[in-house]
Amino acid sequence: MGGEATKAISKEILWGGGRSPFSVSYGKMMMWYFLVSDALTFGGLLTAYGFVRASSTDAWPIGEQVFRSLPGLEGEYPLIYVALMTFILIVSSVTMVLAVEAGHRNDKNGVIRWLGLTIIGGFFFLGSQAWEWSHFIHGSGGSFLLAENVTVTADDGEVFNLTKGDPVYMDHHFGHLAEPWMEGAPNVSLVESDHGVKLVEVGEHSHEAELHALTLNKYIENESNVSGDEAMKLWNARSQSFAFGANMHDNEYAIQQAYANFFFFITGFHGFHVFSGVVINIIIFIMVIQGVFERRKHYEMVEKIGLYWHFVDLVWVFVFTFFYLV
Amino acid sequence: MERDDLIVNDSYALNSSHSEEEGAKIRKNVWKVTGILTLLTTVEVLMGIYFKRSETFTWAVIKWSFIILTVVKAAYIVFEFMHLGHERSNLKKVIIAPYLLFIGYLIFIAISEGFGHLGNFNTLH
Question: What is the pLDDT of residues B65-83, one digit of tens each?
């Protein structure tokens, strides 16, 4: 081997020697290498998610139970919103392919049109994700844990033997006032009502919410509702552990905080990729308008940022499956 | 054998340009792939809404269907949109091999160890 070091290497076989391994340009090759390593990062994150979920002793929330709201609408629309987000990202991937294709024909106006639409699609996705995060953080109603064992009969007649530490979910109206009440807001108080208890808020936005029903298993399986005296039994057995929506310390969706942490980290890391992708697309968009690539006589830069953009779509396909579907 | 890996003045980038007729063909393929991806996503969402989770054999089938559909979608994105299917075969291998070797093994070992810790390897739900 010692002889190898002294042997003269033909300039031709070096990267700078006018030769390109795999018959692709240096820049495109390096973009692929970056994406390979970035995909391993996401692979590691999703595998960690799978490991924690598999080794969890408590029930894990179900995607279509947690994510079933649409902006501005009441009612339940399981998975429709994330499906829409997926579709937005797929469409923006399509417009990016068309931008690359237009680049191969040196069609400057075509590149401007399709790359512009790709950027708009990127903004739509970021906006959707912002709403999704906001909804996840605010939650719907919130939950409290039981301080003792309780046996209740659900409205459909099924009997539940609940143990200490089991979560119980409040409806949207009651939970909305329960949060300031738990935090000790002076204008919200808990008073007895004809059917049990109600929360009363006085002041500028005075209104009240009665406790008439509580929910078991909200994010796990089919909902079971408990009302009347049975709901009061649960309310009286409550502990001080309330959770409203999700933050870095607790969440209403699962007993495991890992659920919320993985949601924030994986979708947040992906969202950061989308954001940086949009920024890169805008930079190249400006360069296209300035005619940089027209003078260069090829639009390979659009192809390279296209690879990154498709990768962002690719990651979302996996996040969608493993976070929302399975 | 004729050398095809020599480059002069960005010739790869220039060689990858194509005519209007070829472009029309490529665009047609793009819309076809778009249709397939949209269809697969729609099927996934409908399955997610319709089928309830349980520990039965049916749910295992549904779950594996999700994973297979996802891999099919990923393959369309990588091989068509990212153009990897039309690159040289050694580039394809360099990019795909790490996943077949590493990620597949990592997922298997992490998930099975996750269940193994509970001692209920058979209740995959």
Answer: 999 999 999 999 999 999 9
